Amino acid sequence: RRPPRSTLSSSSAASDVYKRQVTIYASDSSVPCLQVLGRAHLTMSQVRLGSTSDRQAQSVPVVCTEGGSTVDLTDCIVMGGGGGVIASGVGTTVKMSGCTVQQSAFAGVYLKGRATLTLRKCAFVACEVGLRVRDATFDITETDFKSCTSDGVTLHGSSRGSFTKSGMTDNKENGLMLSPSSVVQLNTCVIRGNQQYGIYVPSGGEYTITGCSISANLMGSYNRAPPVQAEIDSILHRSNRLP
Q: 101-118 pLDDT, tens per residue?
């Protein structure tokens, strides 16, 4: 039996905690399933979060957090939406452990505007892009980005972070796409079976690789050539689909 759809939001400085095996769906396809604003702190465990199948809902994120708030998800499942989790702004923090994000348009997680992200033992499956970061920082361990319809991970602007014991596999485009000003460290990662490059690095992008396996990517392991204008236009178009 499917539980009733509901909308949860928090705008206070208090900490809201949800720890139960329930499914939360957006009650209105024009708003996120969850909104966490204004320095609130939301902790959830063993919760399924999802959008409805309505076409409009596919352009709206499942979880939206900003304004210095914190979202802490453990063993949760995030399904669909026009972005699984979107976090923005200085002081905004997302922590996810043991979570699965699947079939989200635009990105499983979209991090921007100096927000911070920590992922531990998560899986991003069949999203448009598993992780999309713009001018923000991230720390990712034992997390897989696989079978995405575009890149496994896309970095925009001055994004910085690290991947440790993580995978970017079987994606329709690149395993990892850097921007000209992004900096990333990869430690003991597997990048395999992507239909374009394992790592796409335009001129200016920086990456450090230690103990990684990069193989069986259709167009090669690396590409350091500057992107042609058509590719730049495509990246800008995708990145501007959400503000």
A: 999 999 999 999 999 999
